[in-house]
Amino acid sequence: MNLLSLTSALSKGGVLSSDDQNKIVINHDCMKIVFDQRIKTHDGWVCGVDVLPSEVQSIEYATSVVDSVREVGMIQRNEK
User: Fold this and answer.
1) Which domain holds residue 72?
2) Higher pLDDT, 61 or 26
3) Count of domains in the chain?
4) Which of 14, 30, 34, 39 is deepest in the core (most CB within 10 A)?
């Protein structure tokens, strides 16, 4: 599981917006993260996103994207 800090993303140049379906979107340079999952809680919901490659060939690209996001301090690893 990875945690993403919105305030850290914004502090480092990320732009927070929403799309036409009211999903939270963060743009930073050429990277776009769309929080397309809503997880119900007792009082409402929290948003989430899966960072998975769509094809086996894209594993290296997906890994580099996650590493790039980590480098700008937007993702922190949650070790259990």
Assistant:
1) 2-77
2) 26
3) 1
4) 14
